[in-house]
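I have been asked to look over a protein record a colleague put together. What it holds is a sequence and that sequence's fold in token form. Please read both lines and tell me whether the tokens look consistent with the sequence. I do not need a full report, just your reasoning and any doubts. This is what I was given:
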Amino acid sequence: MPSQTPPAPHDSAMYRTMHRQPEELRRLLEEGWEPAEAAADRLRQVRRIFLVGIGTSYHAALAGEWMLRWAGVDARAVMSPDFADYADSYPLGPDDGVVVLAHSGTKSSTSRSLARALSAGAHVVSVGSRTAEHPGSPLVLRTVDRETSAAFTASHTAAMLVVAQTATHLALSSRPSLAPVFLNTLGALPDQVANVLDRENEIVPVAQAAAERLIYAAGAGPSAVSALEVVIKVREAAQGHIDALPLEQFLHGPLVTVNAEDFGIVVNVSGAMPITATRTGEVAGVLAAIGTPLWIVGTGVPQAPEATVFALPEVIEPLSTILSVVPLQIFAHQVAVVRGTHPDLFRRDDPRYAAALSTLAL
């Protein structure tokens, strides 16, 4: 059993860091455009860009892939151990770009990925905390102070934001009509994130209803990234039972495992492509017909009129993950509160897990 008493609901590092996100995003929107322009200059002439990360940083890479592709760039998200260790599957040369996303920069696969990119002569940019270690990287886009909670929140939204700023600069030459839309969308995000955090009490009863159930999460397109991220957050912070898949992958088989006593989360952002919105509504309708309690993050659907909806403003789809992930962070924290787990410790307050994890170098 855990040896450390869980903190009061508002006393964890995860909670405090989560609530700093609006000010961190505002700061990056004031300070980050010049570094992002330098990153765009390094990446502007490459034939393709690999976005490399692991864990939450891999989810930031997935979000960045959507942003850069919409900006007219051939971008590919890859998990850092695959990129580092399966070189033949990811050919790399001096006409390629590599964006290495790592909050601390200390993970072994991060170091190997960065070393491989530098050795190949690729155009390299790193994304990491203010003290992140990215040895040899010619440019590090700095995000936030290194997080002390094992459940990363502000570093994730900040990483996505600096990639979005870079995509905005790249769009000036590749898709100039899109750049002002990106710019205006990013400018509105800090206040939108603050509004979500102010609505925390709307999420408390949702977490209470879900905490002891088997949770399934799904979303289509960029929303799939947020669905995958809530799995990491709920497992890290709350040791909860949760699974997630991109919407269509969830539909093709795994959906049949869902029962009425389980709990469903569907990320359905306003502003998604019409076919995506239609399909999301259909899947939500199936879950509702099964009798599964359903929480929809974004906008409700007529097929599930009884679902609890956490409404979000319309955000251009490739940037929507920066906003849609925030209520899911709150959800994960509140599930931890209900389950009585410490969201900061990665279960290292349990001697068995501390001993087991000490045998493994990340």
